[in-house]
Amino acid sequence: MPQTPVADKHATFARCLECNKVGLFAPLHWLALGFKDMASAPILSLFYGVVFSIIPVAILYFVYQSGTHLVILPATVAFALIGPAFAVGLYDIAWELEKQHKPTLSHSLRSMFRNPVGEWGFAVLLMVIMIIWMRLAALVHALYPNSVNPTFDELSAFLTLGSLIGAVMLGSVFAISAFTPQIMMERRVDIMTAVVSSIHAVKENIGAMIVWAFCIVALVALGFLTGATGFIVIMPLLSYASWHGYIAIIKHKGPRGYE
């Protein structure tokens, strides 16, 4: 009788990397380490901060030009979707500092091509999710009342469904992207391995990741309240902190000197 093929235990496609469990308030420590990285590389951090601030400025301009507040929610979700794909350069700076190297702009830019198939594939994945979200947002908009000054009761269906869909989308993207770019940049694994590992790590550290999600939401809200100028500091800080979260949670063969 023909033997049933046995799966290769050494196969590298779509495997799940092991993870550590961290304390509930570990994200606050990651933020402290992020501030330390910013102090160690202020010029590069400022450069990337300015680049990142262009995105929310464009969102605010779009809101102003459209003349309606209805685009704020989908625009904010879109910002959350595309942000992780552009943080790779900042991850490289934090990694260089960890190795006690002097980070440079050219090295951080080259990091975007360390795993081009995986990294750009991830960017495409986020773009597809963003397109799906924008289509869903357009459908939800159909529930918006036709009256000039709608009451809360008239808005309830629109707000409930829109908030529910937005929460599901953000939660899914958060789990997918929490550690995926960092894993692909450092380990050069395939996108499925990185995504599966990220989702598993979030699930195993759900308490800490909820705290981390609240930190992100609070800082992003602060950035918009400052007219997007706050993102010059906030985006490098969040990116550096994300790198330290990756080091703390995703297991490595040896100890990492990230303090």
UniProtKB/TrEMBL annotation:
The lineage of its organism: Bacteria, Pseudomonadati, Pseudomonadota, Gammaproteobacteria, Alteromonadales. It comes from Pseudoalteromonas spongiae. Keywords: Membrane, Transmembrane, Transmembrane helix. InterPro entries: DUF2189. The chain crosses the membrane at residues 43-64, 70-93, 120-144, 156-179, 206-225. It holds the Pfam family DUF2189. This is DUF2189 domain-containing protein.
